[in-house]
Amino acid sequence: MRQYPTPKTGIAALLALAAGIAFAAPAFAGNSAAHYGVAVNSTATATKTVDVSSLKRPYINVRCGDVVVFRNGDQSFTWKFDVKGHRTFDLAKVAPQGFVASPIKVYVAGNDLEIG
After folding, report:
1. Which DSSP state fits 112?
2. Residue 67 β-bridge partners
3. Considering 12, 14, 63, 70, which has the largest number of Cβ atoms within 10 A of its Cβ?
4. pTM of the entire structure?
5. Among 16-25, 59-68, 101-110, which stretch is predicted with the lowest mean pLDDT?
């Protein structure tokens, strides 16, 4: 005997699908900082420090998984790079408003612990 979904089970399935989409939406938002990693509150795990006011070139190189402290005068922020596809992006996308005065490209390489 074949059973067909009732209106109650159909509504429940639709609500579950909508909830899943709502929770996943921030991860797929265009140009979201989440595409490039996460802010970190502690500098204890930092793998390097970059003073953007003294850069001699308009780019920096990092590896996926690096935790970097960025300084500019008395301002600083710490970022953990977790970049799908290791794409290049402008530091201003993850830096606090007004932190960088000119474009600084971030080149993200893979790390030795990644598979594939």
Report:
1. T
2. 80
3. 70
4. 0.69
5. 16-25
